[in-house]
Specification:
The longest helix has about 35 residues. The chain has a two-stranded antiparallel sheet. Helix 4 crosses helix 5 and helix 7 packs antiparallel against helix 9. With about 425 residues, the protein is mainly alpha-helical.
C-alpha cells in the first residue's frame, strides 16, 4: 500500500524485517521442540537466538542467486550462526514457515483492526447518545418519508460495526492456525509434537490437517470479512456525502482554518474524506475474488496463491486500518446542524404525517382503500400547491365528520415518532 494510506503500526507488520523475524521465531521454536524430543542436539536454539540476526539486505542478495526466499533466509542465518544452523528446518518444508507466518501477520493485523473498530464504536456511540432526540427526516428512495432522529441514524451504524467486530473476531480465530507438517502434510519427516509446541509458542491453534499448505478457505473468510467492513465504511461515508450536499447540509466534515476546498472555486467545502473512504472500500473489496479463487489450488500444493497474498495481505489490511481511523476522526469532528434538519423536515409542509392520518381513518371504520384515497388526494394537493397538509386535512369534510379538530391536532405531534426511541437505544446499547 502506498505511504499516503498507510499507518505505521500496521505497515510495520508487513515489512520484510518483521516477516523474517517471524520466520526466525518459527525456526527457533521448532528447534526447541526437537531438542526436547532429542531429535537434534541441545543448544542449537540457544545459539540461533544469540547469533541469528536478521539481515534483510543479505537475504535479498542471496535470493537473487538461489531464487528461493526461504533458502535465502536459512543461508543468511547459517552465515551468522555457523554449523549448528544445519539442524534448523529439519523435516520442514517452506510452506510450514510461510503459511504459519502469513497467518500470524493476518492475526496481528486483525488485532489492530479490532482496536480501530473499538475506537470507532466509541465515537459513534457518543454522537448517537448526544443526538438521541435530534429530529430529522428519514428518507426512503432518497425521498422524505417520516421523522427519525439523528441519534437513531447513528445507532444503526453503531450496531453494524458491532456486528463487524464480531465477524472480524471470528475470522481472526479462523485464521490463527499453525502448520508444521512437512512435505505434503504427512508428518513423515517431522514429529507432530513439534507443530504443537510451535503453535503454543506463537499463540496459534494447530491446523488439524494441512496438505503442505494451510487450507485457503480460512483466508477467504478473513478477506471477505475485511470487505464487509469496508462496505460498512462506504455506507457511512455515502450517508455523510449525501447529507453534506448544499441543498441538504445537515452534517458537514470538519473543515480546517487553512484548508482549501477547490483549486478553482474558493467557496467550496467538499466531503473529500468521505469520498476517499468510498474509494478505499472498493480497493479492499477487490481482494475478495482473488482470495476465493485461492481456495482451489492443485492437489496438495501449488504457489498460484502466493503472488496474490503478497499483495492482498498488506494492501487490504493497511487500507482498512487507514479507512477505519479516517472514519473515526470524521465522526468525532463531524459538524452537525439540527436547525437545518428541522428546516428540511418542514419542506413538505407536514406530509410525513400522512400515515398517521391513514391509520386513524381505518381505525374509525374506513376501508384501507378509501382511507388511502382520501389521504393521498389531500397529500397531492399539498404537494402541488405547497400548502399545509394539516390545513387540507382539516378542511376535508369526510375527515372532519370523523375526527374532531382537537383530536386531529394530536395526529400531527412529532413526539409520536420519537416515543419508542428509548426502547431502541436500550436494546441496541446493551452489552
Amino acid at each position: 500500500m502506498i505511504e499516503r494510506y498507510s499507518r505505521k503500526e500496521l505497515k510495520d507488520i508487513w515489512e520484510e524485517k518483521n516477516k523474517y523475524s517471524i520466520w526466525l521465531k518459527i525456526e527457533i521454536a521448532a528447534a526447541e521442540a526437537m531438542e526436547k524430543l532429542k531429535i537434534i542436539p541441545k543448544g542449537v536454539s540457544k545459539k540461533v537466538k544469540l547469533k541469528g540476526k536478521i539481515n534483510v539486505k543479505r537475504i535479498l542478495e542471496i535470493e537473487k542467486d538461489v531464487k528461493h526466499d526461504v533458502i535465502a533466509f536459512l543461508t543468511s542465518i547459517t552465515e551468522k550462526v555457523g554449523k549448528e544452523a544445519k539442524y534448523l528446518h529439519k523435516g520442514m518444508t517452506s510452506s510450514d514457515v510461510l503459511d504459519t507466518c502469513f497467518n500470524l501477520q493476518l492475526k496481528q493485523s486483525g488485532e489492530i483492526l479490532i482496536k480501530d473498530i473499538n475506537s470507532l464504536l466509541s465515537s459513534i456511540k457518543k454522537q448517537a447518545i448526544k443526538h438521541k432526540f435530534t429530529l430529522c427526516i428519514g428518507r426512503s428512495h432518497g425521498i422524505h418519508a417520516e421523522p427519525i432522529t439523528f441519534g437513531l441514524k447513528m445507532l444503526t451504524f453503531y450496531q453494524e460495526f458491532k456486528r463487524n467486530k464480531k465477524r472480524l473476531e471470528n475470522s481472526i480465530k479462523e485464521i490463527s492456525t499453525c502448520a508444521i507438517s512437512g512435505a505434503v502434510g504427512t508428518f513423515a519427516n517431522i514429529d507432530p509434537r513439534v507443530e504443537s509446541y510451535v503453535a503454543k509458542k506463537l499463540n496459534l491453534d494447530v491446523e488439524p490437517i494441512s496438505t503442505q499448505i494451510i487450507p485457503r478457505d480460512r483466508h477467504a473468510q478473513y478477506f471477505s470479512t475485511l470487505a464487509i467492513i469496508a462496505s460498512s465504511i462506504e455506507r457511512f461515508a455515502t450517508e455523510i456525502r449525501h447529507l453534506q450536499r448544499t441543498e441538504v447540509l445537515e452534517v458537514e466534515e470538519f473543515f480546517g482554518k487553512k484548508q482549501k476546498g477547490s483549486s478553482a472555486m474558493p467557496h467550496k467545502k467538499n466531503p473529500i474524506l468521505s469520498e476517499n473512504l468510498t474509494g478505499l472500500a472498493r480497493l479492499v473489496r477487490s481482494s475478495v475474488i482473488p482470495a476465493l479463487e485461492n481456495i482451489a489450488l492443485w492437489h496438495e500444493r501449488d504457489i498460484s496463491h502466493s503472488s496474490v497474498e503478497r499483495n492482498i495481505g498488506p494492501d487490504s489490511t493497511i487500507a482498512l486500518d487507514f479507512a477505519l481511523n479516517r472514519l473515526d476522526n470524521i465522526v468525532k469532528n463531524l459538524n452537525i446542524y439540527p436547525k437545518n434538519m428541522i428546516k428540511n423536515l418542514n419542506l413538505t409542509n407536514g406530509l410525513f404525517f400522512s400515515q398517521r392520518v391513514l391509520l386513524e381513518l381505518t381505525s374509525l371504520g374506513f376501508t384501507r382503500e378509501d382511507a388511502y384515497r382520501i389521504v393521498q388526494k389531500n397529500a397531492m394537493q399539498s404537494w402541488n400547491n405547497k400548502s399545509s397538509f394539516y390545513g387540507n386535512i382539516a378542511n376535508d369534510k369526510k375527515i372532519a365528520k370523523k375526527i374532531p379538530v382537537n383530536k386531529l391536532k394530536k395526529l400531527f405531534d412529532f413526539s409520536y415518532h420519537t416515543k419508542k426511541i428509548n426502547i431502541v437505544f436500550k436494546r441496541s446499547l446493551k452489552k
